[in-house]
Amino acid sequence: MTIYPYIIWYHVDGYYLILEAIIQRQEQVYNLVHQMSGHKVFVAAQLHEKGNDNALHLAAKLSPPHRLTVVTGAALQMQRELQWFEEVNKFVRPSYREALNKMGKTPRMVFIDEHKELLKEGQQWMKDTASSCTVVAALTITMAFAAMFTVPGGTQVDGKPLFLNYNTFMLFIISDATALFSSSTSTLMFLGILTSRFAEQDFLYYLPKRLMIGLLSLFMSIAATMITFSATLVLVLRDKVT
Description:
mainly alpha; 2 domains
């Protein structure tokens, strides 16, 4: 395009290069054209021969299957669709955001209609994932809580743990506390997902953010649990491993 910049005005069947990039979800082409031409490229984005859809109407339509499956999981696919719509929304002319096509629909209305099935799939995927992870996190909480009061080696007459002065015992305490707090955080995040309203905009930041925090906390709790188990083995079998 540096050699032939006027290619941005070339069109086939009414679609200019920038519009075809929007339809096909070609981020690199879109960014390159926009950086070269700025907002000028959207002057010709009104397509009267294609249902009077402007650039934002095209961004609101469902991605082609080969681009939609780039991301795994219906919820994350929904997030990607929202991110693309919002990205195009930043740079179109303000009048396009409420413009009507021949069907009398705004871009937002087109987005809602086009993504009804994906929204349902995303809701179910998010609920199933959150439910499964909640069970695992709850089991980790139970185990970590019980381990804190049944320390390896037992306690002395005054109630102090028998291995209190051992460094391995401190590792046991720290890792068990980490497992308890991280699994509790994970449970709260997943419960927040399960009680969500699952609106379309929730899939943009709210739900993916809670999902990532919940998964990271769950992985941390599992890792801490393994450390706790290893420390317990060392304490119980100290005469064999030292």
